[in-house]
Amino acid sequence: MNKALVWAALFAISLNVSANSLQDQITKDYPYLDKLYKHLHQNPEISFQEKQTAKKIAGELKELGFGITTNFGGHGVVGVFKNGDGPTVMVRTDLDALPIKEQTGLTYASKKTQKDRDGKVTHTMHACGHDIHMTAFVGTARRLIDNKDKWSGTLIMIGQPAEERSGGAKAMLKEGLFEKFPRPDYNLAIHVSADLKAGTVGVVKGYAMANVDSVDIVVRGQGGHGAYPQNTKDPIVLAAQIVQSLQTIVSREISPLEPAVVTVGSIHGGSQHNIISNEVKMQLTLRSYSNEVREHTLKAIKRMTSNLGRAAGLPEDLLPVVTVLDEYTPAAYNNPKLATKLIGVFEKTVGKDNVIELGPEMVGEDFGRYGQVEPKIPSLMFRLGTVEAGKFKKAKDGKLRLPTLHSADFAPDPKPTIETGVATMSNAVLELMAKN
Ligand SMILES: [Zn+2]
Ligand SMILES: [Zn+2]
């Protein structure tokens, strides 16, 4: 063996030792994290009501020595740990769950209910995996504090409320997240994936998640007896025409090379067979990547609805009303340089075969907001596989349909998922804040 080979072998061994020691620490810590995960899974709180969840996360960080600020932008939690000179890295977890009745049949399934904002009692479930995010977040904090001799800089760890209603990131930024606390040089976050195998991670370079807008349309008419349509202006027929016409925005007005979605997700009108109603209500979700496509789609919806109303003979004061809700989520952009760097880190952590490069999707995530504040902060949200290996194989062979995120059946395989989340996020932070 020549000298270079000996050095290469020694270097490889030393790398393995350090990789193994982190892995060993995570394995040892897993019972603690498992308990935390099951607690969070059984106690889900919906958007804007994450009071106990925030308290739990704040308590975990406080115990590790973080300076804690609570009730920041709603139920937001900000933890700051200063560990000498160096870069500031922000790690974000979301806190909220969904109004869904869990049907996984797990022994630790959620049985919780909460009142929603209309005062209606609803079942709650972590059907988007935010309980996994929180557990991996706490696990990462525990590893980084135990290994604080290996990094230098300021670590900011935030628990963000109301991701599902797209209000949390905006509220925390508005309250002064980047002014009252050290401004990050990097932002990092995890989101689970319902189609990647547990033990793997997925990374998108560049645009990863879409612009999201919610739009309400109220189609008005002049109601009456179902037997005398000639004396009415039927809003149901007009609404049907509007739904059809909206489909031509994406197919006829937007370049086939530009991603866009117009989905009418809800339509309600009328009360009985023989009554022509006065009103139909619709709820739409819009997705896009570019600002031009977003603005064109919003304008086209207004143009089509009002002109179809005119074509139906409605007077100007009864034309459909289009409201763009204040729930806009901007597209999430993964800084390509940061993504490339961390792909290298992830490959060392979980092996090359377990790091998958993904393409962009039309889902939305308000984590994107943290990277958009000028001057823009390099940010990365990576995907964490959750699917148990046996189920993953069956699904690949076409023998099983995997539940999606937001499904009552979504059930991650906790151990490999959480361990991989802690290992990849800890190593990502260690890489960005490594002591020279
Ligand atoms: Zn979600
Ligand atoms: Zn989510």
Task: List the SSEs and their pairings.
Blueprint: H1 3-42, H2 51-63, E1 67-69, E2 77-83, E3 88-94, E4 113-115, E5 121-123, H3 130-146, E6 153-160, H4 168-174, H5 177-180, E7 186-197, E8 201-203, E9 206-209, E10 211-220, E11 224-225, H6 235-253, E12 260-269, E13 275-276, E14 279-288, H7 291-311, E15 321-324, E16 332-334, H8 336-350, E17 355-357, H9 368-372, E18 379-387, H10 389-396, H11 414-432
Parallel strand pairs: 3-6, 3-7, 7-18, 8-17
Antiparallel strand pairs: 1-2, 2-6, 4-5, 8-18, 9-16, 10-14, 10-15, 11-13, 12-14
Bound molecules: zinc ion (2 copies).
Can you describe what's shown?
The structure is a single chain. By secondary structure, the protein is α+β, with helices and mostly antiparallel strands. It has helices at 3-42, 51-63, 130-146, 168-174, 177-180, 235-253, 291-311, 336-350, 368-372, 389-396, 414-432; strands at residues 67-69, 77-83, 88-94, 113-115, 121-123, 153-160, 186-197, 201-203, 206-209, 211-220, 224-225, 260-269, 275-276, 279-288, 321-324, 332-334, 355-357, 379-387. The chain has two domains: 3-209 and 331-432, Aminopeptidase (3-Layer(aba) Sandwich); 211-324, Alpha-Beta Plaits (2-Layer Sandwich), CATH 3.30.70. It contains eleven helices and 18 strands. The strands form five sheets. An eight-stranded mixed β-sheet has the order 1-2-6-3-7-18-8-17, sandwiched between helices. The structure holds zinc ion (ZN) (2 copies). One zinc ion is lined by residues 128, 164, 405-406.
